TrEMBL record:
Required co-factors: [4Fe-4S] cluster
Pfam families, per the entry: EndIII_4Fe-2S, HHH, HhH-GPD
Coiled-coil annotated spans: none
Keywords: 4Fe-4S, DNA damage, DNA repair, DNA-binding, Endonuclease, Glycosidase, Hydrolase, Iron, Iron-sulfur, Lyase, Metal-binding, Nuclease
Function recorded in the entry: DNA repair enzyme that has both DNA N-glycosylase activity and AP-lyase activity. The DNA N-glycosylase activity releases various damaged pyrimidines from DNA by cleaving the N-glycosidic bond, leaving an AP (apurinic/apyrimidinic) site. The AP-lyase activity cleaves the phosphodiester bond 3' to the AP site by a beta-elimination, leaving a 3'-terminal unsaturated sugar and a product with a terminal 5'-phosphate.
Binding site for [4Fe-4S] cluster: 196, 203, 206, 212
EC code(s) of this entry: 4.2.99.18
Protein name as catalogued: Endonuclease III
Gene that specifies this protein: nth
Keyword Secreted carried by entry: no
GO biological process: base-excision repair, AP site formation
Family: Belongs to the Nth/MutY family.
Cofactor descriptive note: Binds 1 [4Fe-4S] cluster.
Boundaries of every HhH-GPD domain copy: 46-194
Length: 238
């Protein structure tokens, strides 16, 4: 017989998941290495279809050679391509990084803008990159960063039924308090890497399993009586 679970509202579940993620990953932070908003912007663009670990291997040499927007804007494009080659899609990334830095110099006074609509004008920048830059460079929670981990886990946890990142972001914004929008994403990414992996999620070791409709938990031999509950099922003791 399958385990019978009864949950309260989707928003209450989301808040309980957030509480548990904070306990599981209390020190979770952005894993990209950077010193300035421009460097964070560049690193985040490079992280598309690439691991943060790989990006962090590339950026020391890149930023040592071209540390700021003016240097990148005036760099030789072929050299930029060579420096970012191992991150994948290097020609397009190098072109976008240089074009973004040129726009920053020409239109935004040499500073990465602090407004979402202005960030989205920059080549290579969509909402994911803009959310990361606003949250970690300026402390502005404008939205929820949706990468592949956040997309996968949000669907497995039953918090969205969408595949489009913008629609997923809208669903999560409605469920979570604004001050936690970015740390939700960071902690969910940590959990996606460590436990809720794409191919073989470790449901039997997951602290969120009792809140997850997709959890593949061990079956039991005898039926479980459903009991009335107005709260969220507490995490199993481990």
């Amino acid at each position: 017989m399958s385990i019978i679970r009864k949950w309260s509202s989707k928003q209450q579940r989301a808040l309980e998941i957030l509480i548990r993620l904070k306990r599981l990953y209390p020190n979770a932070t952005c894993t990209l290495n950077y010193e300035t908003p421009v460097q964070l912007l560049v690193a985040t663009i490079l992280s598309a279809q690439c691991t943060d670990e790989r990006v962090n291997q590339v950026t020391p040499l890149l930023f040592g050679r071209f540390p700021d927007a003016v240097a990148i804007a005036t760099a030789d494009l072929a050299e930029l391509e060579t420096l970012v080659r191992s991150t994948g899609f290097y020609r397009n990334k190098a072109k976008n990084i240089q074009a973004a830095c040129r726009m920053i110099m020409e239109k935004f006074g040499g500073k990465v803008p602090k407004r979402m609509e202005q960030l989205l004008e920059l080549p290579g920048v969509a909402r994911k990159t803009a959310n990361v830059v606003l949250a970690h460079a300026y402390g502005i929670n404008q939205g929820v960063t949706v990468d592949t981990h956040v997309k996968r886990l949000s669907n497995r946890l039953g918090l969205t039924e969408h595949a489009d990142p913008i629609r997923i972001e809208r669903d999560l914004i409605r469920l979570l308090p604004q001050p936690d929008w970015e740390n939700w994403s960071i902690r969910l990414i940590y959990h996606g890497r460590a436990v809720c992996t794409a191919r073989n999620p470790k449901c039997d070791a997951c602290a969120l399993a009792d809140l997850c409709p997709a959890a593949n938990l061990p079956q039991i031999d005898s039926p479980v009586q459903e009991t009335k509950s107005s709260g969220i099922v507490p995490a199993a003791k481990r």
